Amino acid sequence: MDTQHLGEGPITEAALLAGGTQNILLKFTRSGRAYVLRRPPPVLRANSNETMRREARMLAALKGTNVPHPGLIAACPDETILGAAFYLMEPVDGYAPTTGLPEPFLSSPELRHQMGLSLVDGIAALGAQDYLALGLEGLGKVDNYLERQVGRWKAQLESYADTPEWDGRKDLPGVNRIGEWLESHRPQSFQPGIIHGDYHLGNVMYLFDAPRLAAIVDWELTTIGDPLLDLGWLLATWPDTADKSSAGTVAVQPWEGFPSADELVAHYAKQTTRDLSGIHWYGVLACYKLGIILEGTYARACAGKAPKATGDDLHRRTIWLLERALRWIS
Question: What spatial distance separates the first Cα and last Cα of the chain, rounded to whole Å?
Fold first, then answer.
């Protein structure tokens, strides 16, 4: 911070922030200015440092755009300073809706409806950015992006068999059928753009005084690909009153007033030139991909490398997501 001219003297008021199960968020003050430090966990994963560098690159590129995001202050790709790459960002003046709604949003279905539409505005703005003009060429592999999806995640699922204790495959309904359906119904083309990669109500913050996004957070899966996958991800995690269980969804309480999935798609359509006729496919792909990702934690839990309760919960969510995908393709 000294070399970046970011204040003088000691760091004070340091406190861990909740949110995110993998990376560390630490808020502190120096010379009267508040900062948030984001870094990987103490035990690094194979891609931890690269993830931090990608996140910082994306936040730097989004400066000055209409995409709500935490402002990047400075990044340190050098792993020797803290033992890992890290960056500093501006604190977000907002709240996480999944931890509880403040008034007046708690009492107003109309405001909650606007909150849901604002969620779509975030990815519509992100997908509309010219990633080349923002200097993000090479952040992701655009060639054959859609063609690579099923094979990539099928291989991920099969890799869990390397964990002898994993017994989950017997519980995963129709996972092969879903993969086959995705391959045979894949869109023929797409318009490349920025993807957040894990877009849902748990990864955004809202303003305290308006039903609008304050920031999209947790950019660790960001890449260049087909932005319609972000909309599909939102649909895959969106509560559906037709479902008897909300086990696999990301919701806030109370839910009354939030838009339906069809309303989300219609609102996105007003803000894009992309072809949404195949959005159903992206929702199924999101269920498939997210379910397989969550199953990885269950496999680690079976081997004693993650908390059993967490693993069991995510395994249940994987089953729910695959069952939802099967309903959608039927």
Answer: 56
